[in-house]
Amino acid sequence: ATPNTGINYLDIHDNWALADRFARDKTGEHAWDGRFGVDEDRYRVAASLLFTSLGPIVLHGGSEIMRSKGIAPLPEALGGELVKQTAPVTVAGGPGEVPIYLKGRGDTYNLRVANQYDWETVGATPEDGAANDYAAMLAFWRGLIEFRMSEAGSVFRKGDPQPEGTYRFLAPDHTQLLGYVVDDRVLVLVNSSDAPQTFTSVDLADGTWTLVSDGQRVSLDGDIGSPLDGGQAHDLAVPERTAMIWVRE
Length: 249
Prior knowledge:
Helices cover 12% and strands 27% of the residues. By secondary structure, it is α+β, with helices and mostly antiparallel strands. A 6-stranded antiparallel beta sheet has the order 5-6-7-12-9-10. The mean pLDDT is 90.
């Protein structure tokens, strides 16, 4: 009924961490374990989609540092089924036992170690021997937060019903491309394919459209790329596995 009717999120306190969903190795020794490498391009695409969603968003603490729960077992390691265990707990009436259901990384609610933070990775880069560029990802999320909280980002921070056409979607024939213009103030182009693609004849309202995210970093200072002139159509190239964001001045 309104943007406040629901929430938008990528990952939350229980279940898979985003870094594990986007782990590079899905089938080998480090399956679904972001500690050994994350598809950082697609991770940033996901984050860009979240931050350009209408209405409330939930940020899971640790996603900005590619926190992993890879230490938790995979469901297959638990026999592929729910495993019922019991563990001593203290309740109001005294000590006792309660059932605990384990689903591995599919549900980490009861797994204390998996929910701990690996702070040692914060700020690390591949040059330091790290599996991921944790420093760059943290800077990217910081930029997205700044963008979301800016005047331009106010188009997403709406609680009242929005008029029809607030989102103008661009849906090329290529099924891995999606674009949208929000309130004629923000343009988002997403290419989730593995090759560069071009959005053709993208109509922009009058004004100067500043690139604030090239998919690798976010800056509101206009220092990422050349601006676009509004009042005309543009053919816009987007690299593979990239989401780009422009703001109309």
